[in-house]
Amino acid sequence: MIPGRLHIDKVSNRAISSRDTLVHPPEPPKEILFGNPTNGIYVGRTEIFKMPFYWTYENVANPHIAICGISGSGKSYFIKTFLLRASFVWNTNAIIIDWAGEYKEWVNQSGGKIISLGRGSYLNLLDLGGMKPYDRIKQVMRTLELLTDVGNYPEQRRLTEQAIEKAYTQTKFRMDVIEQKDELGKPLAPPTLKDVVRILSDQAQTGTYEFPAELENAIYRIKQFTKSGEDFFAQQSTVKLDAIVSSGLIDLDLSGLPDEPSRALAALTILQFIKERMRQESWSAAKGLKLIVVLDEAWKIGKDENSDAVMIVREGRKYNFSMIIASQNPTDISEAIFSNAGTTFMLKVKFEKFLDYLQGSLNFSAYMRDKISKLGVGQCAVNLALTAQTKYPPTFLVEKIEGEEPSKEYFLDLSEVMSLQKRRDVSVPRSVSFARDEFRRRLRQFGLSDDRIEELSKLFDKNNRRMDVVSFVIMLERYGIARRNVGDYLKDAGIDDATIINIFGKVDLKKSGGVGRDISQVVME
User: What three-state secondary structure class fits 9?
Assistant: First the structure.
C-alpha cells in the first residue's frame, strides 16, 4: 500500500465479521448461532450474515420461550415448527393448552392426541394427581381466587375450604397421604364439586349457621361449575393425568367450554398437575427436553404472578421442562415469566407501548426497535439470555422462520381505501398479509363456524390468496361478526385507524348502493 493513497479491496462478510470494528453488526458469533446442529432446533438464517441459527437450551439461562407479535405474524406457525423438530431431535413430549381449538387439526395430522373438554372429556377438579389432599385443596382455593372474587370474602373462602376437606374425608381419604387405596387395595375415587355443593347445602338446611347469606353465596359460587351440561369439572376424570406428560403430542382443546372462566379453570388445573409431576421427576443430566408446555394467548393465566405457569418457568430448567408462552400483547405475559424466559422471539410488533415494553425489558437498540416494527410475516428478532458473557449483541434478526412446509399467506388489498397521499408514497404497502393458520384461528375466536371459515379460505385461494379489504369486511359482517371485532382484526393486521375508518365508509357506501357520493358519517358501534 502506497502511503497517502486510499487502497480499496473486496472483503467477504465473514472476514469483516471477524474484525474489531467500532460497531459490531447486531449478531452473535457462529459458536452461539451454529454450535451443535445435532442438539438444536433449526429456526432460519440471520439477516446480515445469513448464518443458520439453531436454538438450543445449552447456551441460554433456561429453556423457556416467550413469543410476541401481531395477529398473522406467524406465531403459531413457528410453534408448530418448533414442536415438530423438538420431537425429532430430543423425542420431546408436548402439551398445547389450546384456547380456541387452533392446533387440533395440525395435531391430528401430526399423529398426536386431542383431548376436547366440553365435548365428551371431563376433568375432575378434585383429582389429586399424585398430591396429598391438603396440598390439592390449597391449589383449588388459589385457582378459585384467581377466577372468582372469593378471596374478597374470608368467611365464604373458609366455608368452601372446609367443605372440600369434608368431601375428601367422607370418601375415606387421609389428608396427609399420597397413595390412597380402599380395604381391597383399589385406588379410591376422589370426590367431586357436586359433593362439595351437597355438603354446603346440607349445612344450609340445618338452619343453624350464623351467617346464612355467606353460606348461600359460597354455594352459588361452586354451583356454577356443577350445572347439568356444564359440569365439565364436577364428574370423574376421563383424562389420565399421569399419562399426558409422556404421551407425545397432546392438544388440550378448550374451545368446547362455554366461557373464559371455564377455559382458565381447565388450563390452571392442568398446569397444577404438570407442576406436581415435574417436581416428582428427579434431576436429569441427559440432553434434551422432557416436556414442552405451550400457552398461546392465555392472558388470564399467563399474566397473574400467582399462576402456576410462573412456578413452572421458575423451576422447569432443573427438570428439563420447558414452557412456550405466546401473545399479541407482551404486557399480557407476567413480568415474572418474561424476565425468566431464556429466549424471546419478537415477530412484528406495531404498537408503540408494546415496543416500549419490549425495549425496556430487553434493552435493544433503536435500530432493532425500528426493524421489529417493520417485520414481515415469518420474520423475527431474537433475544437470547446467554449464560456466558459476550461482547456481541444478544438481540439479532432472522430473515425468515423456515418451517417444515411453506407458510401460506393471505393478502388484503388496500389500494381502494388508501388516501391519495398514501397512494403516491411508494414506501407505503398496498396490502397487508397474515398467515392462513392465524387467519383461521382469529375467525374461530369470533365464533365463525368451520364451514364459513372454509368458504372464506376458498375465496382467497381462488383469487391467488388475495381479496380487496372492502369485500372482506362485507363478508365478515354478513356472517354476523360485529363491526367492533372487525375493526380490532384490521388493527391487529397492521392497518392504521384512518384507513380503517375509510374502509368502513366504503363498506357502508357499497351496502347502500351509493356511488361517487361523499361519506358524511361512519358507524363504528
Answer: coil
